[in-house]
Amino acid sequence: MKWLGLDKAFWSALRRIMFVWVRTTVIPAGVAERFSGSEAPLLYVLERESLSDELVLDHECLAAGLSRPRDQLVLGNLVEPRRWFPLRIERGWRYSQRSAVQAEHLARIVQVLRDQPDLDLQVVPVSVFWGRAPDRPEGLLQALFSEDWALRGRVRKFFSVLVHGRHTLVRFSEPLSLRQLVDEELPDALTVRKLQRILRVHYRRLRIATIGPDLSHRRTMVAKLLETREVRRGIDREMRSKNINRRKATARARAYANEIAANYSYRVILVSERVLTYIWQRLYDGVVVGHFDNLKNVVEGNEIVYVPCHRSHIDYLLLSFVVYKRGLVVPHIAAGINLNLPVLGQFLRGGGAFFLRRSFRGNQLYSAVFNQYLSMNLAKGVPLEYFVEGGRSRTGRLLPPRPGMLSMTISSYLVRPRRPIVFVPVYFGYERLIEGRTYIGELSGKPKSKESIFGLLRFLPTLKENFGHVRVNFGEPLRLDDLLDRGRKGWREEKHEYDRRPAWLPPLVDELGVEILQRVNAAAAVGPVNLLGLVMLATPRQAMLEPDLVAQLELYRSMLSRLEYSPWVTVSDEKAVDMIAYGEKINAISRRGNPLGDVIYMSEEQAVLMTYYRNNVMHTMALPALLACCFVNNQTMDLDEIRTIVQFLYPYLAAELFIHWSEDELPGVVKKTLDVMAEHGLVRQRRLRNRYSRNETDARQSVRLTVLARLVEQTLERFYFVIALLRRHGSGHISEKRLGEECSLLAQRQSLLFGLDSPEFFDRSLFRNLIQLMKKRDVLDVDSSGNLIFGEVVEDVEANAGLVLREDVRASIRQVIAA
Questions:
Q1: 748 lies in a domain?
Q2: 553, 435, 420: which is closest to 485 by C-alpha?
Q3: Most buried of the four, 146, 283, 377, 772, by CB within 10 Å?
Q4: Mean pLDDT, all residues of the chain
Q5: In whole angstroms, what is the distance from residue 618 CA to residue 613 CA?
Q6: Cis peptide before 28 (omega within 30 of 0)
Q7: Residue 148 pLDDT level (bands cut at 50, 70, 90)
Q8: Is residue 355 part of a domain?
């Protein structure tokens, strides 16, 4: 900038003039605290030489109280005129021409550090993004001048500042110690080149993470897709099997590709961000994001695959909104073809949605096209998002994982392992669901409503309602390489092809699906509504005196904090009285006044809806509840006896709720949980330290223990239904399908006669999954006629269930079955 003759006063005036218009968002927050304590001097790096970028850097350093880029750098006896350098120097007014930065001043710095081993220098990469979009020239002003991968001159940079100055992202990256590079004792020239190479790789990874990979035009991508070997093979197979010519088969493949492919548009992203901001402000009291650092720590240099739980159609929009607002690129989202509606489908494509059919069976050409589309995006580093459950949960529990997308992802990676794949679990916690009443109807037998534009219009009146808070927690990332190394040692040396999946892949996919869902649940957000559901639905009439409810809520909140289900679970820090007030505000509970004390209760409609939010977090309290069941029916128990019962029943509970503890970890977890229960007065540890008993001296604690135990009672009831029906029919006299149907119908009768008429209790899929797990654990087998056979182990199962399930509940089940 010397040729402009800028002195300090003019430089300051220029910065102030620019920031009349420019507004920045700095990542991470707290830059001052992060760098101000550094003893080593700071040397800033910008990706490109740019007056506007340098002004932004100067402004942020001034605001944070850090050394400024135009300050002198004093390092030992070396004095450099400035504290920053560009990685690339770009020349030209209309079209930019890149040349390598002159490295003489870096060589001088390296020489000083080599001569004086006690000195260090912190190199701080700083990135300035004027708007964020992949390379998609849509013809709009914003798209024309947004950040992309193209070379740009000063004229275009001027318009970028003018158009996007209000939405400028500034990212300070982790500092790099130049001392560490110098200590590697490479020649000075090689040390400088290594530093430049590290910075180039860093900026490329950061640019991919922030604005997305360098995307080709959609038509170009479709053309390349049709030229791949796998799609050409699919076209040949289609010609032979359907007896059609190449032109028709190719046209069919092109139609499939156009049906599938996203059409990412910055125009849509900009509009969506503003529309969604308005919608969230109308619908929710706030969007609370937790553990975003789990994502930030892995985003650079990896292929990110978001794998959230699926509660609502809002999920698609919410995750994209959250990552975009925090400086990352919006992922490409796998959406069901049912959402490819007129107008809406094109809008979703513009936001990154790509569409897939529910089944690929019998259509090899479609399968080949979809596999190659997925593979090309993975190879380019496009972040993806899909739901391993396959569909939205109607009960609030996670659904069993579907292997399709996971299998295709792993297969693509095995063939083209370009970038390490990292799965990022995401947990959504809603306090009210827009689809809540629809789900109850579907569980009760009503047909699922098809998605339509008219259905979307029916959503508009809900903008007047209050849906509380929504929480988005990012779980512990899962690296695919680690899973492959654990499951198949020599996978890197093996040759892989798309249409020949190895025999070891399906079990590994199943393991991956379960582990992802366990990590989703390990990032649960336990809010006030969840806690109210856990307590109120465990009472016989869904009603409690207010002081008792306050005590039970505080008990659960305290136990969750002490037990620490996982480091990623977040628990509301609100006081119990505030939770109750909040529940009344959003119509989750009601209050009935009484001179002796108010009663907090749920109407039948409120209670049925609240089962969803209870089920979201039931896994966090399931083990304490199971232990409480042991003491409801037994005064005193040995630790070994408790462990035996829990070890027997835990696999069924863990499979339904995707609890993350392995069976090997269980003995230690049981002991810790019992100790926490003893701390809270629910049980007592006897003088013989391996014996525990329920607290009979305090009636209030006895009631609290009973309420806690009832939390898992319905799960145990379903288990007992299966066992009781098996024993009634006898071995070899009932098929798996018929057993599941009878269990569901009888559970529905049980629900009507003896409890809350909640459709989620008699959901057929829960019984189906339970029976399949019993087969997997060799409790049940299938004979040649397709009927279930079993041995004496069923009696052991029934005996263990009897130790934790109240006698009156077992009697009611036997009564319903005998009727």
A1: yes
A2: 420
A3: 146
A4: 87
A5: 9
A6: yes
A7: low
A8: yes
Q: CATH number for the domain including 320? A: 3.40.1130.10
* Average pLDDT of the segment spanning 657-671: 94
Task: Report the number of distinct structural domains present in the chain.
Answer: 3
Distance CA 136, CA 142 (A): 11
pLDDT in tens, 285-304: 999 999 999 998 898 889 99
Paired tokens of 122 = 């912190």
78 bridge partner residues: 75
Other Cβ atoms within 10 Å of 97 Cβ, number: 10
Is there a single domain that holds both residue 42 and residue 176? yes
Beta strands in 643-755 (DSSP E): 683-685, 691-694
Domain boundary among 184, 211, 238: 211
Task: Please give the Cα distance from 473 to 159 (Å, whole number).
Answer: 38
Q: How far is CA 421 from CA 198, 230, 484, in A?
A: 21, 22, 11
* Same domain as 454, residue 325: yes
What are the tokens at 571? 């628990």
Q: Is residue 133 part of a domain?
A: yes
Listed residue (259, 515, 566) closest to 388, CA to CA: 515
pLDDT per residue as tens digits for the range 699-728 = 899 999 999 999 998 888 888 888 888 888
The boundaries of the domain holding residue 43 are 2-211
In a domain, 239, yes or no: no
Can you give 215-281 as a three-state secondary structure string?
A: CCCHHHHHHHHHHCHHHHHHHHHHHHHHCCCHHHHHHHHHHHHHHHCCCCCHHHHHHHHHHHHHHHH
> Do 355 and 258 touch, CB atoms closer than 8 A?
no
Structure tokens at 524: 């649960």
The candidate with the shortest Cα–Cα distance to 298, out of 427, 127, 424, 482, is 424
Same domain, yes or no, for 479 and 401?
A: yes
In the predicted model, what is the mean pLDDT of residues 119-139?
72
For the record, the structure tokens of 705 come out as 């223990």
Mean pLDDT in residue range 468-474: 95
Are residues 363 and 256 in contact, defined by beta-carbon separation less than 8 angstroms?
no
Q: Which domain-ending residue is among 457, 488, 521?
A: 521
Between the alpha carbon of residue 626 and those of residues 436, 619, 692, 799, 805, the distances in Å are: 28, 11, 15, 15, 10
Q: What is the pLDDT of residues 46-103, one digit of tens each?
A: 988 888 999 999 999 999 989 999 999 999 889 999 999 998 876 554 444 444 445 6
pLDDT tens digits, 325-341? 888 889 999 999 888 88
Same domain, 177 and 274: no
Residues 200 and 330 grouped into a single domain: no
Contact 607, 781 (CB under 8 A): no
pLDDT value at residue 672: 95
Same domain, 145 and 292: no
Amino acid in the structure at residue 36 = S
Based on the fold, state whether residues 277 and 195 are members of the same structural domain.
Answer: no
Angstrom distances, CA of residue 736 to CA of 14, 327, 443, 770: 77, 50, 21, 11
Report the pLDDT averaged over residues 439-456.
70
CB 497 within 8 A of CB 415: yes
DSSP letter for each residue of 361-372: TT-HHHHHHHHH
Statement to judge: residues 281 and 160 lie in one domain:
no
Sign of CA dihedral 636, 640, 645, 651: positive
- Measured CA to CA, the distance from residue 257 to residue 794 in angstroms comes to 52
Residue 199 tokens, joined = 């910075």
CA distance 35 to 32: 6
